[in-house]
Design goal:
The structure holds two protein chains of two kinds. Chain A is built from 19 helices and two strands. By secondary structure, chain A is an all-alpha fold. In chain A, strands 1-2 form a two-stranded antiparallel ribbon. In chain A, a hairpin with a 4-residue loop joins strand 1 and strand 2. Chain A is globular. Chain B is built from four helices and no strands. Chain B is mainly α. The longest helix of chain B is centred in the middle third of the chain and has 54 residues. Classes of the chains: A mainly alpha, B mainly alpha. At the A-B interface, helix 1 of A face helix 3 of B.
Chain lengths: 486, 131
């Protein structure tokens, strides 16, 4: 049995604190009439901030990655960066959720408990250094997300979303696990670095085990990041789930899934680099093309943003495709920017939403600039950022992703990225046209904000603009998140 | 060699004696009661011949899920006991954390009334009868 020092558990203090927070909210929610929504939201914000402070103080990151607990987990700049991004995304999700939990007759304690537990899973995911620990953390995230997607339990659409998410998520988890088991069968290793070292020999002795294993592993991971052709669950789940949950899935869940995709490919499968580059190039191109083309015809904003998140998965894959230093930190930077942009856009959907689902159509944005000029301006910033137009973080992120792909010799994929970005302008700006050029009618829903929602939108706007205008310190922050390249 | 099977023989004999004593005791002391239902074959509380597509309370499903959770916990505890000495304190505390997590789940089910079947059935009936 692997011997390990009990004191190493102290290095997991952030994750442990967050898990305790989730469990405490769960128990508090089960007593009597449960916890009032605002109390639960304040408590979960407190736990998230405390966890972020612990990540900054306890998890000392040296120049060398530090393996802990029998090398199940690793402390490095990469894990630390993504932990902080995920915590920020979750905190914003909590702010967006306040009104939604108040409005619905659904219990607040369990909602925030599930949110915190899913985030705990994500933090373990990005720090995982062993295929089994990564998979278990992934399941913790996924199981909590399935329940969150079905949180409107009396709404058919929410039930449908939860069921589709559960069935397809369980399938992809099974494929991922089976791929990992084949790789383990071929090499006898689960630790990513030892797996990488054992692969060259296993490719000779294991014959078809290695290609089958890594292909299944890739399919499972690409399912999780919603890349075409494994994206079919995304639109239905994003539309049916309660909007704050959709925002959480699109931002935090996608970021965590990308983190393990990058870590497994770069640290676990560097020997297969030429092979997986071809697969990633193909997946990235069809993802960018299909995501953007399908978004063109959508009239429901949540569905449009779902296809937009598929398209953005394609852009992020460009950085992994390059497999270079600049490629990897541009993935990190883009996911940081994307977290704020997409959470802001979904927060705007929440502002206009009524009676759980109404107010989601593009036409509901008609005349918003006249009725709520600041909100319309905020939405415009998010739309510019999603398209990739300066002066926003979305522009800076895309520039580096495309540059990384071109530098690594994948010019044709980068060209597809640029062309599809131009296409995306059409559907993003159909919302801007509604806001600025159309008149509102009597049926147009009034925007309904709350202090928490305003705070979330303001944070996202500021972050999006700062990342676009002064990207320097954040690029350095992302560069510290680099992984050692083969 | 045959003497190694003596424990098996003893167990068999004990089972026979115990069964005989119980049958005899209930025949002598017990009151004769019962009827058609008691004499019908036992099929986990369900009638033996019955339409297969009938509505069953969701509570059976919830109980089954609760059972699976605690059953899996028990399955982890058996191998733990066997290697406890080699693993030492780290292994002991790891499993204690695991048990504590399951305990949280147990308290949750308990507080939410998941174990109070009678109460849940009754509220269900009341809801049904009051429309």
């Amino acid at each position: 049995m692997p011997a390990f020092d009990l004191r190493e558990f102290l290095l997991l203090a952030p994750e442990i604190l967050l898990a305790i927070g989730g469990l405490a909210l769960l128990l508090a929610g089960s007593v009597g009439r449960g916890v009032p929504g605002r109390v639960a939201a304040s408590l979960s914000l407190f736990f998230l901030v405390a966890t972020a402070l612990l990540v900054l103080t306890v998890e000392e990151v040296g120049p060398e990655p530090r393996l802990i607990l029998g090398s199940s987990f690793v402390l490095d700049g990469f894990a630390r960066f993504f932990k902080l991004v995920i915590l920020a995304g979750t905190a914003l999700t909590v702010l967006i959720s306040v009104r939604f939990v108040d409005d619905g007759a659904y219990r607040a304690g369990e909602y925030h408990a599930l949110l915190l537990l899913a985030t705990t899973g994500m933090m373990f995911m990005v720090g995982g250094f062993n295929l089994v620990s990564i998979w278990i953390a992934l399941e913790l995230m996924a199981l909590s997300s399935y329940i969150l997607a079905g949180y409107f339990k009396r709404e058919t659409r929410s039930n449908e979303a939860a069921l589709k998410y559960f069935v397809l998520g369980a399938l992809s988890s099974a494929i991922l696990l089976y791929g990992a088991s084949l790789l383990y069968g071929a090499t006898g290793e689960l630790r990513l670095d030892l797996l990488a070292a054992a692969l060259p020999e296993a490719m000779v002795t294991g014959r078809l085990l290695v290609p089958t294993g890594w292909l299944m592993l890739s399919v499972g991971l690409l399912f999780k990041v919603a890349a075409v052709p494994f994206h079919v669950w995304t639109p239905d789940v994003y539309v049916g789930a309660p909007t704050p949950v959709t925002a959480y899935l699109a931002a935090a869940s996608k970021t965590a899934s990308f983190a393990i995709l990058v870590r497994i490919f770069v640290q676990g499968l560097p020997t297969l680099l030429p092979d997986w580059q071809i697969v990633i190039a193909a997946v990235a191109s069809v993802t960018m093309i299909w995501g953007n083309l399908a978004a063109l015809t959508q009239t429901n904003v949540k569905r449009m943003l779902a296809y937009s998140s598929i398209a953005h998965a394609g852009y992020v894959l460009l950085g992994l495709l390059a497999a270079s230093v600049i490629g990897l930190w541009s993935v990190a930077f883009y996911l940081l920017a994307y977290t704020f942009i997409t959470l802001g856009a979904f927060a705007m959907v929440v502002v206009l939403e009524r009676r759980e689902y109404a107010g989601e159509e593009v036409s509901d944005y008609a005349g918003l600039a006249r009725r709520a000029p600041w909100l319309a301006a905020a939405m415009l910033v998010f739309l510019l950022a999603l398209t990739g137009i300066p002066p926003t973080g979305g522009f800076v992120g895309k520039v580096y992703l495309f540059a990384a792909a071109v530098e690594a010799g994948w010019t044709w994929v980068a060209v597809i990225g640029v062309l599809t970005s131009a296409i995306s302008l059409y559907y993003y700006f159909s919302i801007a046209v509604q806001m600025y050029l159309k008149e509102s009618t009597r049926d147009t829903p009034e925007p309904l904000g709350s202090p928490a929602l305003t705070a979330a939108i303001a944070t996202c706007v500021v972050a999006t603009l700062v990342l676009g205008l002064f990207p320097g310190p954040f690029i350095e922050f992302a560069q510290a998140a680099g992984l050692p390249l083969p | 060699m045959p003497e190694t099977y003596l424990p098996v023989l003893l167990a068999l004999a004990f089972a026979l004696i115990l069964g005989g004593v119980i049958l005899a005791a209930s025949g002598l002391i017990g009151r004769g009661s019962g009827g058609r239902v008691k004499l019908s074959p036992y099929e986990s509380g369900e009638p033996l011949l019955d339409p297969s597509r009938k509505r069953i309370s969701i509570l059976f499903f919830l109980i089954a899920i609760d059972f699976v959770i605690f059953d899996v916990e028990a399955a982890f505890l058996y191998p733990w006991v066997l290697v406890l000495r080699e693993g030492g304190w780290p292994l002991f505390w790891s499993v204690m954390v695991f048990v504590a997590l399951i305990l949280v789940g147990f308290v949750y089910i308990w507080r939410k009334g998941g174990l109070d079947l009678k109460k849940r059935f009754r509220t269900r009936w009341q809801e049904a009868s009051h429309g």
